[in-house]
Amino acid sequence: MVKAVTWRIVGTADTFVLSWLITKEPITAGAIASLEVITKTFLYYFHERGWNRVKWGRG
Q: Cα dihedral sign for 15, 35, 40, 10?
């Protein structure tokens, strides 16, 4: 769990920095990074549900 949380922090920080470099606006970069946290949480959930349906390698 700690690994997942720290990876999420690294990923969001990366999104913030890249957004700031592109937009030159820290407020906009913060908004993009915040939105990214929300959308990726939902995307991850549905991605996992999809993979749970795959039968490859299961006995």
A: positive
- Look at residue 30 and tell me if it is in a domain: yes
Q: Tell me the pLDDT of the chain (59 aa) as tens digits.
A: 899 889 999 999 999 999 999 999 999 999 999 999 999 989 999 999 999 999 888 76
- What is the domain range of residue 18? 7-52
Q: Would you list the DSSP string of 6-51?
A: HHHHHHHHHHHHHHHHHHS-HHHHHHHHHHHHHHHHHHHHHHHHHH
Separation CA 31–CA 38 (nearest Å):
11
